[in-house]
């Protein structure tokens, strides 16, 4: 299954991508995580992306398209994949089409802007492995420590309230038009994000089956 998860920042794409990855055994590919890893490793691409990311703006299309082209060539993508955070613009979606990739399903997780803002302020991520936690919704076993790898949990710079506002503006202007794009292709399913993660998970899996 070749799958795209759409939705505003903080809608819960990453969590659902992880759930689907575990159940269907296909890789979850997050362009955000790839860029942050590149930045942590001090690569040129990472440094280029940093100023955009910190300002809550989208990284230029050619950069992320290049990342995805490389990543999808890898062996583990043969039986399918989950794209979390790509495409985020029409040219990015067009690039997937031009690569000849047949997407099976696009699941859009809808969450109101007000909810996003309060959710992102509680998000914490592992500085080592990028696993994501939440002060209210997804608490780690030991406070401040990653369950998966024991790394330290930190707040992402771009989860600061002012930056979140900018990310939401970008989302509505640049990413939301993708709903129309995939609706026209008959691939879009909309899921209302629920208060409880497992309730959203159930709806997401239903959206994959019908
Ligand atoms: P979120 O979904 O919570 O916004 P991500 O980790 O997916 O977080 O993305 C963080 C940042 O990385 C974005 O604000 C943007 O700067 C950059 N980024 C990630 N994916 C893309 C993309 N497909 N196109 C442009 N920029 C991207
Ligand atoms: Zn970790």
What report would you give on this structure?
47% of the residues lie in helices and 16% in strands. By secondary structure, the chain is of the alpha/beta class. The strands form two sheets. It has a five-stranded parallel sheet, with helices on both faces. Strand 5 and strand 6 (132-134) form a beta hairpin. The mean pLDDT is 94. The structure holds adenosine-5'-diphosphate and zinc ion (ZN). Residues 9-10, 30-32, 35, 52-53, 56-59, 64, 85-86, 88, 92, 158, 167 line the site of adenosine-5'-diphosphate.
Shape: globular
SSE order, as H and E?
EHEHHHEHEHEEEHHEH
Strand order of the largest sheet: 2-3-1-4-8
The class by helix and strand makeup works out as alpha/beta
Round the Cα radius of gyration to an integer and report it. Answer: 16 Å
Largest sheet: 5 strands, parallel
**Alpha plus pi helix count:** 9
Spatial separation of the terminal alpha carbons: 13 Å
Descriptive keywords:
three-stranded antiparallel beta sheet; binds adenosine-5'-diphosphate; alpha/beta; single chain; 210 residues; 8 strands; binds zinc ion; globular
Short structural description:
The chain has 210 residues and is of the alpha/beta class. 47% of the residues lie in helices and 16% in strands. The model has no long low-confidence stretch (mean pLDDT 94).
């Amino acid at each position: 299954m070749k799958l795209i998860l759409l939705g505003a920042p903080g809608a819960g794409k990453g969590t659902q991508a992880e759930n689907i990855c575990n159940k269907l055994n296909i890789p979850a590919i997050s362009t955000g995580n790839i860029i942050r890893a590149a930045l942590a490793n001090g690569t040129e691409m990472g440094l280029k992306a940093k100023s955009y990311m910190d300002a809550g703006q989208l990284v230029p299309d050619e950069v992320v398209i290049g990342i995805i082209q490389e990543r999808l060539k890898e062996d583990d993508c043969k039986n399918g994949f989950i794209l979390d955070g790509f495409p985020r613009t029409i040219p990015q979606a067009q690039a997937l089409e031009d690569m000849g990739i047949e997407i099976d399903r696009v699941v859009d997780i809808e969450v109101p802007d007000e909810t996003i803002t309060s959710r992102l302020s509680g998000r914490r991520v592992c500085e080592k492995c990028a696993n994501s936690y939440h002060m209210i919704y997804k608490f780690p076993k030991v406070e401040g420590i990653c369950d998966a790898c024991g790394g330290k949990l930190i707040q992402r710079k771009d989860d600061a309230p002012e930056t979140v506002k900018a990310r939401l503006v970008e989302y509505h202007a640049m990413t939301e038009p993708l709903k129309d794009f995939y609706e026209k292709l008959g691939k879009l399913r909309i899921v209302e994000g629920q208060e409880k993660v497992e309730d959203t998970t159930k709806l997401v899996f239903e959206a994959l089956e019908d």
